[in-house]
Amino acid sequence: MFCNQCEQTAKGIGCEKVGVCGKNEGVASLQDLLTHALQGLAIVAVAARKVGIVDPAVDHFTAEATFACLTNVDFDPARFETWIRKTVELRDSLRARAEGAGATISNDTPALSYRPAADLAGLEAQGVALNFIPSLDENEDLRSLKQITLYGLRGLAAYTDHAAILGQESDEVYAFLQQALADLTRNDLGLDELVALVLKCGEVNLKAMELLDAGNTGTYGHPVPTPVPLGHKAGKAILVSGHDLRDLQLLLEQTKDKGIFVYTHGEMLPCHAYPELKKHPHFYGHYGTAWQNQQKEFAEFPGAILFTTNCIQKPRESYQDNVFTTGLVGWPGLTHIGEDKDFTPVIERALALPGFPNDEDKGEVLTGFARNTVLGVADKVIEGVKSGAIKHFFLVGGCDGAKPGRNYYTEFVEQVPQDCIVLTLACGKFRFFDKKLGDIGGIPRLLDVGQCNDAYSAIQIAVALAGAFDCGVNDLPLSLILSWYEQKAVIILLTLLHLGIKDIRLGPTLPAFITPNVLNVLVDNFAIKPISATPQEDLQAILA
Ligand code: FS2
Ligand code: SF4
């Protein structure tokens, strides 16, 4: 296996024997094989589009299966086998229809003629034989750009799938996903064309995130400022992790009047701010911090745990019977709740477990500062900047992870001067989410915009402020201090680059899949920079 798609990749180079995330060689090979098969399906889908055939089932399947290869989503070999076989079935049936309508599709890439082996061991051997990442391109800079594209596509597919679940889809997004997957099989694309493809990923992702924002706010209302308890109530308990709002909604409906309190974990925290979710009286509080602490935190949770998306880690024996998965997330041996979303097994498990013995007050945190709320007080914000009461905004957000260097983000927020405001989003916020930073003229100094899935909201805030000050986003007193871990962070970064946003500081380390030459392109065009050794250095440079 060779995988270097995430920030925790072994030795900062690549996972070659087993993933630091827990992915074994078999699953890594199956993910490579699935991606290869999806490229064959994508080439056929592109050809089919040209003769007027668009298949919504193929489109949504492509997004789902691409998302399944994102870090920490699915570790279950059996499901990858199902996806690989289905990909080839869809490819062959769509091909027959497209050719029947006049399309010409040659067999000039192995992805088009690929035939799955008879069993799982055979599939894994096929995946190993692909040598997928090294074979993307002989030239390491072109390979680097193809990897950025592929990982960006996995992030794009995640947002596309989330939006589709809430009924928001766009043919433009699906068509691009397929075209880009197909383009990655080509060996005639040069540096400039691949840089353009990378930026196009960012552009299309803006559309995907807009759709997701429309899905979330259209279904559940605009988030409103909401205090969220960090303690618990006496009683049975279910913890919901991941990112999926619909799963949470359905679970809240199915647990009504059952004497169970529902808690959020990790990226689900901002769900407390949606009117259509917060209206449930048994939707109580937030438990725990970011994904990388789950093995310790889940062991201490006295109820059932539902994982709706990434980031799952190997469940410890002490709590594995309490953990359930749904949607694309999976771990072999755990009970998976299927498309019927019947959460009865989760509820029964919660009722069988002890729950919390007593009420405990551990304070609260504020969430709900998505675009509607922040822009609702835009006049106050603008006045604060004009009067000098607000000197600067910092967007400190992105993914959390296990590296000790991530303390940088905690210290950064602690050291932000009193006349500055911190906007945050995604699970990186757990480095400082419970800090009491006070307010400036009634505007809290720490504003939680939402999940990584809500990056669109943060972009809209920046764009609206730039409009109000009649300047570009780069001219605002705003700096982006981002942390990355997986491929949703990659695609958000590409969207920011597409928007021409400069001077982004990125950490804790730069991606292993970016070569020095490709980094030079990014530095020259976008002045992107790694975070410094200490927050003091960066704060001084920014505020000078
Ligand atoms: Fe955090 Fe993990 Fe949200 Fe990422 S919970 S790192 O995949 O999606 O941010
Ligand atoms: Fe390694 Fe990350 Fe790939 Fe897992 S996803 S195998 S940790 S690079």
From TrEMBL:
It is found in: Cytoplasm. The modification Cysteine persulfide is found at C399. Binds 1 [4Fe-4S] cluster. Binds 1 hybrid [4Fe-2O-2S] cluster. GO terms for biological process: response to hydrogen peroxide. Coiled coil: none annotated. Gene3D superfamilies: 1.20.1270.20, 3.40.50.2030. It is an enzyme of class 1 (oxidoreductase). Signal peptide: none annotated. The keyword Oxidoreductase applies. It comes from the Bacteria. One of its GO terms (molecular function) is hydroxylamine reductase activity. GO terms for cellular component: cytoplasm. It holds the Pfam family Prismane. It catalyses: A + NH4(+) + H2O = hydroxylamine + AH2 + H(+). Its EC number is 1.7.99.1. Its cofactor is [4Fe-4S] cluster; hybrid [4Fe-2O-2S] cluster. InterPro entries: HCP/CODH (IPR004137), Hydroxylam_reduct (IPR010048), Prismane-like_a/b-sand (IPR016099), Prismane-like_sf (IPR011254), Prismane_a-bundle (IPR016100). [4Fe-4S] cluster binds at C3, C6, C15, C21. The lineage of its organism: Bacteria, Pseudomonadati, Thermodesulfobacteriota, Desulfobulbia, Desulfobulbales. Catalyzes the reduction of hydroxylamine to form NH(3) and H(2)O. Belongs to the HCP family. The keyword Metal-binding applies. This is Hydroxylamine reductase. Keywords: 4Fe-4S, Cytoplasm, Iron, Iron-sulfur, Metal-binding, Oxidoreductase. Hybrid [4Fe-2O-2S] cluster binds at H243, E267, C311, C399, C427, C452, E486, K488.
